[in-house]
Amino acid sequence: MARGDEPLLSQGRPSSDHSDERSVEEEDALLTGQKTQQPRNYGWAFWREVGLFAWALIATVLVILFAVLYSHQQQTSKPTPSGGGWKNGRPTGKRNLIFMVSDGMGPTSLSLTRSFRQAETGLPIDDVLVLDEHLIGSSRTRSTSSLVTDSAAGATAFSCGQKSYNGAISVLPNHDPCGTVLEAAKRAGYMTGLVVTTRITDATPACFAAHVNHREEEDRIAEQEVGEHPLGRVLDLMLGGGRCHFLPNTTDGSCRNDDRDVVDLAKRNGFSYVNDRKGFDGLNFGSNVKLPLLGLFASTDIPYEVDRRNMDNVYPSLDEMARTALGALKSATEDSDKGFFLMIEGSRIDHAGHGNDPVAQVHEVLAYDTAFASVLDFLDQDDVEGVLVGTSDHETGGLATAR
């Protein structure tokens, strides 16, 4: 064949002794639809890749096994400074539980408060509340009698772990009483306390230490809280408002329907009693407290924080009461192998929602946020194992911030 007639792609292409055999194999493969079997040459690069993959797989398995074993060891045998730890998957030793309730606070309450604080103080838009840093999940507190849960049904769900009707104070739909976490703690030898900014006889605190068919029975709730209770006295400390339900109706400032003197009943059951700012300041943030203690600092509810801060010489704040309760219960359990249970409620977020009062609401949320931060600081500094659980019982007022 003349040079100019040679196929273009054949120029410079080396010939192969096996090209004819390969062509036959390829034709057979096309006709039969089966791949030709050609011997593969596994060189050093291939085996190097296999070795690296195997090493990575083994290393990953070992890391996972080590992490699982370490976690198990931490949960089952790691001692705490107070001697607490874990045994058979259960906690052992001394420990404290603080349960915080932001009554009537929904997600929009947080959004409004966060934006208000940023605007008022010139903070950047990514600044958040202490509460925002501890958002984990949500709780279910649905009432058995309504699609809209009230504080009584919500707190019964918290305290008893069972659902009931609106207005129920730790009783079930058939009106049988249900045992509360505070009562269980007291029977187990723990010290107990309640801190609120409403009446101490209001629905949320009542659900931890009383049992009545309806939340309006506040006179009876007061009696149970100071010890006239099926289990005897279950409370060691109460700080809040609601003094009128403890005074006989023969005296000024009473709202009782009878002439029972519940303050006197409390004293006969061993309670020390303070009822003003001077008496509260004398408690010295818990270092000068004689338990059991009854502190009632307002006839009904302690004023909204936006107003209370201008009457600081009359009413203690939620944060001050919380820190006082923590200090008192810590001191009281110093030499005990048991800790304490304390419920702290930001009570009047709910009232601001009912009143559609955004100014009051943001200041109530900020006050609760401050108390929440103080509890976290206490747990960080305390040498006793402690747990903080914070949640809301329901939203109030249908707050919306959309345009």
Produce a short descriptive summary:
This protein is of the alpha/beta class. It is built from 13 helices and 9 strands. Helix 3 (107-121) crosses helix 13 (358-381) and helix 4 (151-160) runs parallel beside helix 6 (203-209).
Helix-strand layout with pairing:
Blueprint: H1 19-32, H2 44-77, E1 85-87, E2 90-92, E3 95-102, H3 107-121, H4 151-160, H5 181-187, E4 191-199, H6 203-209, H7 218-225, E5 237-241, H8 262-268, E6 272-274, H9 277-281, E7 293-296, H10 305-308, H11 318-332, E8 340-346, H12 349-354, H13 358-381, E9 385-391
Parallel strand pairs: 3-8, 3-9, 4-5, 4-8, 5-7, 6-7
Antiparallel strand pairs: 1-2
Helix pairs in contact: 3-13, 4-6, 11-13
The percent of residues in helical segments reads 25-40%
- By DSSP (H or I, 4+ residues per run), the number of helices equals 13
- Uncertain runs: none
Q: Quick check: average pLDDT? A: 89
How far is the first residue's CA from the last residue's CA? 87 Å
Structural class category: alpha/beta
Radius of gyration from the CA trace? 34 Å
Major sheet: 7 strands, parallel
